[in-house]
Amino acid sequence: MTTVGIVANPTKEGLREVLALIHGWSRGFGLDVVVDERTPEEALGELEGARSSSVEEDSDLIFALGGDGTLLYAARRVAELSRPTPIIGVNMGSLGFLTQIPREDLPEILETLDPGGLPVTERMMLRTGLKGGAEEHLALNDVVIAKGADSKMLSFEGRVGGEIVTRYAADGLVLATPTGSTAHSLSAGGPIVTPSVRALVATPICPHTLSMRPLVADPDSEFEIEMISCDDRALVTTDGVRAFGLRQGDTVLVSRADVTTHLVDVAGYSYYEILRRKMRWAGRVRER
Fold it and tell me: Which whole number is the average pLDDT over 133-147?
């Protein structure tokens, strides 16, 4: 490992202090530092380090500073390069399931973090595109088929492995990884799936028929979503970012990607602890 990269949400407060901490930690191990070109000049101050338009390509370890959106952005960029670069998420906001480290805990975490022995977990990703098309997109959280803001309900047929599942009448469909099960899928009524489980979750958005329930499928299943009825405002998003538009008759393919995201799993931050805190579950936990 020779280079630490920093990708930051430029709108977050406290960037200067966090950048200084990471810079000092990196230099202490003799590592170079590169920062995303979007980083505000006032946040950098007098810190040494090169700006880069391709931090994901130039780095052996990436700190994502912001919320989950910042980490998802970095993860997609790394995956597009087919690199196993580990990512550390630092939460600069209030929610964030993926940005594991709260900003206020970063000084203590850095004291124990050794770049030569980082505990890394792999998270499955999704790949999507139109049947017969050449363009493909990657997602760590989810692929969402959605209608336009003022469009009528969509009608589409869902198939898994070529077999018909059902015809949906709904505002859309969320196809999520276990990582993304606590994002859009959860808000649409989908289940929480722990990251260690390998699965693909299909959750309809505001289905017209109440019997339409979320489906948890084998992770190696290929979903085909054929658009029976939609207008030209229907679209597909990957991790909340527009990927491509849809037309009636299009078939969207969604399957497990052959690349994964590598997240640094910092000691002391268990998935269930984060889940309890972020979901504000009020049940009393018995001390052991």
Answer: 96
Told to judge if 68 belongs to the known catalytic residues of this protein, a careful annotator would answer yes
The catalytic residue among 32, 36, 60, 68 is: 68
Residue 137's beta-bridge partner residues? 128
Strands (DSSP E) found in the chain? 3-8, 32-36, 50-52, 61-66, 86-91, 101-102, 120-130, 137-139, 142-146, 154-160, 163-170, 172-176, 200-205, 215-217, 223-229, 235-238, 241-245, 251-264
Class of domain 124-259: mainly beta
Q: Could you say which of 3.40.50.10330, 3.90.1150.10, 2.60.120.10, 3.90.550.10 is the CATH number of the domain covering 3-119+265-279?
A: 3.40.50.10330
The residue among 166, 202, 170, 197 whose CA lies nearest residue 185 is 202
Q: pLDDT tens digits for 150-182?
A: 889 999 999 999 999 999 999 999 999 999 999
How far apart (Å, rounded) are the C-alpha atoms in residues 201 and 199?
6
Residue 8 and residue 137: Cα distance in Å, rounded? 22
Q: What is the pLDDT of residues 241-272, one digit of tens each?
A: 999 999 999 999 999 999 999 999 886 677 88
List the structure tokens of 43: 């946040």
Q: 225-240: buried (b, 16+ CB within 10 Å) or exposed (e) per residue?
A: bbbeebeeebbbbbbe
For the segment 72-96, the average pLDDT, to the nearest whole number, is 90
What is residue 84's three-state secondary structure? coil
At position 1, the amino acid (one-letter code) is M
Is-contact 154 144, C-beta < 8 A? no
